[in-house]
Fold:
Amino acid sequence: MTPDYLHDDDKLHEECGVYAVHGHEGAAALVTLGLHALQHRGQEAAGIISYDGKEFYNHRALGLVGDNFSSQEVIERLQGHMSIGHTRYSTTGETALRNVQPLFAELHAGGFALCHNGNLTNSQKIRDQLVMRGSIFQSTMDTEVILHLVATSIRDTIVGKVIDAIQRIEGAYALLCMTKEGVIAVRDPHGIRPLVLGTFEGGYVVASETCALDIIGAEFVRDIEPGELVVINDEGIQSMRPFPPTRKQTCIFEYIYFARPDSFIDGISVYDARKSIGKGLAQESHIEADVVVPVPDSGVPAAIGYSQESGVPFELGIIRNHYVGRTFIEPGQQIRNLGVKLKHNANKAVLAGKRVILVDDSLVRGTTSLKIVEMVRAAGAKEVHMRIASPPIGYPYFYGIDISKSKELLAAQMDLEEMASYIGVDSLAFLSIDGMYRAMGLEGRNDLEPQYCDSPFTGYYPTRIDDYQDHVVDVPKFKKPKKAG
Structure:
């Protein structure tokens, strides 16, 4: 696993990003650009596989897209008119080259490549069954389970084999497969993870987010629907529905944090959703202050919305250093404790003598928030109030985010006053559950049929979670705060 000091302890880590191009010579070069636009979804590893009508070509590596796919030699080696790619944050399996996607295998029907964004919740159960029957796994990822299910299916066609496989898995996934016949894209039945379809110069593009279409100038066609399987080949596009109809429940964290703000998911602007969330936060819990300051970068749109609703000026009181990469040395404890200053620095001209409202998108473990608050106070802030643009995170999440146990979460261990004291603020407030849904244009949460996947806030899981049943035993300690005023 990645050492804690290499990432922000108080942030959730993204799932993964997937990208495919079909029908365009030099497809891998376009996939590389697409993965650049999806880099926010995973920074641990990246891989691309291409096909030129005769051979499959593969390049996978640990690290950022730009560090591994910037040389002309690499791109020229990835020949062909179709390609799929993946950028990864490990949700299952350690960070190692054997766990870098896309995966590839020579099946009876020919070469088969696949990658996916999300997390399967019954993969260990299926893996155990496959191993008992003689399957030999090369990685520790849940994705490889899909590969083996395809390989062992007795269906006649490759599309049939893929359908066979996905009808046995549970969880969240935006799945891309590539064979010599074309590209297959699948979105899980609830649509928990996003997936979009576009066109580019007579070919087709599939991506996790619309911002990855924009980077190459592709035209957005539509979202791939929950439970939809799309086949892209030389004849065009074919859509199939291999699952019974079920309720769409896109992960609401895509709008709160994961997706890039310039993306649209299921027709909703992520940027507008975050501003609306900030406005709702101001309506529910505003307090008198001099400046509204975002915790960059993910807190910026919500802070803009908060400022617009409250009338308190928006200021960049914290400046982020965008050029911090992974350190090439193993830091000592002293340097590790200074880690937050590598990424953030207080803007004293804005903060000194002011009553400050800090707006962040989420509060997970509290460690970085504590350091941010200390930094703001050291810059001379008179008061520091924290406003969180999401409800308290008190439950594990098993669909592609690195929260597997409630004991890792501050809101599961402390009530509101205890959390405020721990991070050192004068006041702390979260967006309510209904406020989150109102920000998405709804009247509130439908408790009988939730409109989104919101399990980190509610403990409601839209799929079976066979591999994780033992983790869902905790009840968060957090108590819902009363409305300010």
